[in-house]
Amino acid sequence: MKKIIFILFLTKIAFAQNLDSLYNELLVQHSKIKSTSQTQIQNTETNKCGFGLTASVKAHFNEFSYEQQQTIEEILDRPTLQTSIVSPSGFFRIHYDTTGQNAPTYNINDLAIACDSAYTFEVTILGYPAPPKDGTSGGTTNMTFMFLI
Predict the structure, then answer these.
(1) Residue 34 contacts by C-beta under 8 Å, 6 or more apart in sequence?
(2) Is the domain of 50 the same as that of 93?
(3) Same-domain check for residues 114 and 141
(4) Would you call 77 exposed, middle or buried from its count of C-beta atoms within 10 A (0-12, 13-18, 19+)?
(5) In this structure, are 71 and 8 located in the same domain?
(6) Do 48 and 7 belong to one domain?
(7) In a 3-state reduction of DSSP, which class is residue 95?
(8) Using CA atoms, how far apart are residues 95 and 78, in angstroms rounded to an integer?
């Protein structure tokens, strides 16, 4: 019986260390994003995509301390951008800035058409499931996904 309790104790310690590691990695990635340009981020192997890290943090959100939860919410909160458009199919709302350093240097309408094209190919032709609805967070009640650029 003592062995089982000891193993459970070690498992709990390992899990707590994993949460701390997850939290610290989020802080590191966030500070890198804030302090470097997007081209520098894209050129580093470890910063290829933050989806896995974000998904793990969200999956274990309730297990973090209250202070950590507050910090995580600040980091993962959606930024407020200047404007948005809805793609021609109505599947996407694309949020973007029209001025400043974060303004796209390409035609936003071309991006909207490309998003619809990718959706049609992946969902209709290849048969992948549609992404989950974004609800009102994307700007309307029926958006499939939302882009922040």
Answers:
(1) none
(2) no
(3) yes
(4) exposed
(5) yes
(6) yes
(7) strand
(8) 10
List, in sequence order, every residue forming a beta bridge with 126; answer none if it has no partner. Answer: none
Which structure tokens are listed for 105? 């240097």
Beta strands in the chain (DSSP E): 83-86, 92-96, 145-148
Same domain flag for 89 and 135: yes
List, for residues 113-141, the tens digit of each pLDDT value. 999 999 999 999 999 988 777 665 544 44
Three-class SS state of 91: coil
Residues of the chain short of pLDDT 70, as ranges, are 1-17, 32-49, 134-149
What per-residue confidence (pLDDT) applies to 50?
73
Phi, psi at 134, each rounded to 5°: -90, -15
| Inter-residue contact 127 to 120 (CB < 8 Å) | no
What's the structural domain count of the chain?
A: 2
Task: Residue 142: give the domain boundaries.
Answer: 83-148
The answer on 88 and 68 residing in a single domain is no
pLDDT given at position 81: 85
Rounded CA gap, 121 and 134, in Å?
20
Residue with tokens 């969902």: 123
